[in-house]
């Protein structure tokens, strides 16, 4: 593969006694890290973390930076917390709204809307008037209409705690290396990919000769 497919697309799988959960990453960041590793073969993982600060999930969201996030790349195991991206709209003459534009990875949008609507129905926290899924071709959009007396910050804090607006993703980066399963840190992954490319180019060159 002429690009680092395993980390850029991610992977998930379960086998006998083995499971892997590799989050997707930004291709430009990975290529920059691998290029740096080629030019600086004695660099450490922290130097590569400058280029790969974390996963890049296709559904967006906000990743909280902490030591557990760095552990994914230092040890091959770790957990990241992902929160939805939202904004509060409070315009004069219009009802207050919470607009959600990005949700955590692997969160089912329909189930999320259903969970928020159930909270509205049960009135476990007052102030939610209506919940709508306004997603269209321009992107994801969930609108939460609030009542006049509602406190948006309190409602957001409650929803982040009680619904999948905020979730955790556990990474366990196991890959097959030399026909054996191996837990990969960022450094070993870059080295394996570089070694693979050297092998491919050498074989191709010998064939052409």
Describe the protein's topology.
Layout: H1 5-9, E1 11-15, E2 18-22, H2 27-39, H3 45-49, E3 62-63, H4 67-75, E4 77-83, E5 85-89, E6 97-102, H5 109-122, E7 128-133, E8 142-146, H6 152-162, E9 166-172, E10 174-177, E11 180-183, H7 186-208
Antiparallel strand pairs: 1-2, 3-4, 4-9, 5-6, 6-8, 7-8, 10-11
Average per-residue pLDDT, rounded, comes to 93
Q: End-to-end distance, in Å?
A: 22 Å
The shape, in one word, is elongated
List how many beta strands DSSP finds. Answer: 11
Task: State the helicity in percent bands.
Answer: 25-40%
The total count of helices amounts to: 7
Low-pLDDT stretches are none
Provide the succession of SSEs.
HEEHHEHEEEHEEHEEEH
- In order across it, which strands form the biggest sheet? 5-6-8-7
Rounded radius of gyration (Å):
22 Å
Helix vs. strand class: alpha+beta
Major β-sheet profile: 4 strands, antiparallel
Taken as a percent bin, the fraction of beta residues is 25-35%
